[in-house]
Fold:
Amino acid sequence: MHIKIYFLPVTVILMFLFAGCEPSGPKDRYNLSECKKELMSAEDYSEADAIDRIVVIKKKRMMYLYKDGKVKGSFPISLGRNPVGHKQQKGDYRTPEGEFFIHRKLCSPKYYRSLCISYPRPEDKARARARGVNPGGDITIHAQPKWNADGSGDKYTLARNWTQGCVAVTNSSMKKLWYAVREGVPVTIK
Structure:
């Protein structure tokens, strides 16, 4: 009896182990064609659904949408894994606190759609520089990872703080939020 032994590169072995029973192709990415089309044709905003301020209350794990000083909606949220206090540096898993604004809409291959907020601000950069650390960045209000694209895991994700410092909402909440905001909308996180 002859036994042949094959040596495979570690990356091939890891791909095999994590592939499971899924068909080939990246399963952790959203199809972004619809989102990109909306952005390119300026169909990513509805004046009828518009809001003029977002307020996130970390302790309550809630987001409030305002129009003319009145609450027009609210969503439960998830935060960074280390939610207490203001973000100090990259990798601390804290969600920043303070006054920010939406500076960009992003079709996110990992989290469906995202609203980029203006962190780090100049004062955040100065504080981090004084401590000799990187302030971090790429903080967004984003939707759910691909494994929860259908919302079946919303109860699970909303019961935990799991992001790297972002504010996460459900995909259905992001659909409403996406069309309600333009770049420049103020965001208060406290």
